[in-house]
Amino acid sequence: MEKKAYKFVVLTNAVEGRDGEFNDWYSSTHVPDVLAVPGIVKAERFELAEVQRSALPLPYRYLAIYEIETDDLKSVSDEIGKRAGTDAMVLSSAMALEKLAAIFKPL
């Protein structure tokens, strides 16, 4: 089976007043943990810009886009779920609990 490319998009916020701690954890701990999942090949992080076409505030301030290359998307998704919150993918109390995470496929 041929590998296909997907985008895993995650929108998050820091707990109020803990943005520095959140960003340090996300960039130095969480991204490497996620990149250790077989099939995830790249990660990029973004912060909401001050200028928007929609009225502010928007519900999420931070965006991570992960690239997945796999012939078995379910196994990659399952592995993320299996690792989340364990020593293999430590979660931070500086991350707000509400988030939006979705996997997209090319058209």
Automatic annotation (TrEMBL):
<protein>
    <recommendedName>
        <fullName>DUF4286 family protein</fullName>
    </recommendedName>
</protein>
<dbReference type="InterPro" id="IPR011008">
    <property type="entry name" value="Dimeric_a/b-barrel"/>
</dbReference>
